[in-house]
Amino acid sequence: MDARKPLDMFAVSLTAVLCLCFGLQQIVLKVAAPDMAPILQISLRSGMSALLVWLYMVCRGEKLNLLANGIWKPGLLAGVLFSLEYLMAGEALRYTSASRTTVFLYTSPIFAALGLHVLEKTERMAPLQWVGILLAFSGIALAFFGQGGSADAAHGHQMLGDFLALMAGASWGMTTVVIRVSRLAYVSAKQTLMYQLVAAFVLLLVSAVCLQQTAFTLTPRLVGSVVFQATLISFAAFLAWFWLLRHYQASRIGVLAFMTPLFGVVLGYWLLHDPLEPGFLQGAACVLLGIVLVSGYAWIGQGLRRLWPFSRFQA
Q1: Could you count the other beta carbons within 10 Å of the beta carbon of residue 214?
Q2: 260 and 106 in contact (C-beta within 8 Å)?
Q3: Dist CA 79 CA 95 (whole Å)
Q4: Residues facing residue 5 across a β-bridge
Q5: Which DSSP string do the residues of 27-46 spell out, in sequence order?
Q6: Domain EamA, which positions (predicted)?
Q7: Could you tell me which residues come within 8 angstroms of residue 308 by beta carbon, excluding any fewer than 6 positions away?
Q8: What is the SS3 assignment for 248?
Q9: CA angle 87, 44, 195 (to 5 degrees)
Q10: Is 202 exposed, middle or buried (0-12, 13-18, 19+ CB in 10 A)?
Q11: Is 312 helix (H, G, I), strand (E, B) or coil?
Q12: Whole-number Å distance between alpha carbons of 68 and 73
């Protein structure tokens, strides 16, 4: 029997706040990009967050053993995939808008569902979920190519940025698969997060050096960006998210996560004046609906069975 609770007002409110924070992530990176390259910002925030997580574990008397037998290999793989996600997301922000980056990045549940369908027998997808997959990929194509009358050069740069953001979403999805099908599924969320943060700090710092993106200008805007990301996004928000998943029904939390790209699009338009082409908005709507069908299948099934008790719908 699932000991996790159904959503209550506190859980819904906390999820909304966390989605708002996650939606701000790309906005803040983009705002501070003139002062420091996004991948270097992410590297620094990851190092600071790793230190905060370690101090938190020390205060709670929890042990951290990143080299434990049977765990360090999937932990390293998860860390590399996590680093690739943010490397591509950071580079995407150089070529496309924060709004578009957020939408393509948050296609990750689609890629995770496909990977788990192949590797985990208990995660086989139902017909309604395949409809969601088809709808999401149709939305990706519509958002990707429905870019209006931009100039050829700008159009090409935007397509490159969109593709990098989409690959970042795929990498995030594969990170989820690794965590679910390996021994990482049985260790604390804080230790799993540490693998990802430490790997991102090291690998993104090396990437910034190799790509010659280490120049920066120390400004209040940059300091605020890195501190916000390190303390609120990579530390507090991630730990709160893991707490929610541990105490409430994950499928329902996953459905509400669609608010993150929604917040990202609205905030990008409001704060950065990101252009919102009709094709992109239509595609983004299809992507969000597809994610809801894939992630919220069990919840949708429960609702249908309540409405039609004699339905053959199987969750």
Answers
A1: 14
A2: yes
A3: 25
A4: 248
A5: HHHHHHTTTB-HHHHHHHHH
A6: 10-144, 160-295
A7: none
A8: strand
A9: 70
A10: middle
A11: coil
A12: 9
For residue 36, the cross-strand partners are: 216
Task: Classify residue 187 by its DSSP letter.
Answer: S
Question: Token match 């049985």: residue?
Answer: 186
Would you tell me the crossing angle of helices 152-181 and 72-92 to the nearest 10 degrees? 160
Half-sphere exposure of 205 (CA within 13 A, CB side): 12
Tell me the three state secondary structure of residue 49: helix
Tokens 């983009």 label which residue? Answer: 30
Per-residue pLDDT of the chain (315 residues; tens, 9 = 90+): 455 677 778 888 898 999 899 999 999 999 999 999 999 999 999 999 999 999 999 999 888 888 877 788 999 999 999 999 999 999 999 999 999 999 999 998 889 889 888 888 777 888 888 898 999 999 998 888 765 545 555 666 889 999 999 999 999 999 989 988 888 888 888 888 999 999 999 999 999 999 999 999 999 999 999 999 999 998 998 888 878 877 776 656 767 777 888 899 999 999 999 988 888 999 999 998 888 888 777 666 665 556 555 555 454
Q: Encoding tokens for residue 134? A: 């088809």
Every domain of the chain and the residues it spans:
24-298
Burial class of residue 308 (count of CB atoms within 10 Å of its CB; 0-12, 13-18, 19+) = exposed
Q: What integer pLDDT is reported at residue 67 of this predicted model?
A: 80
The contacts of residue 151 (CB under 8 Å, 6+ apart) are none
Residue labelled with tokens 């239509």: 282
Q: Is 286 within 8 Å of 142 (Cβ atoms)? A: yes
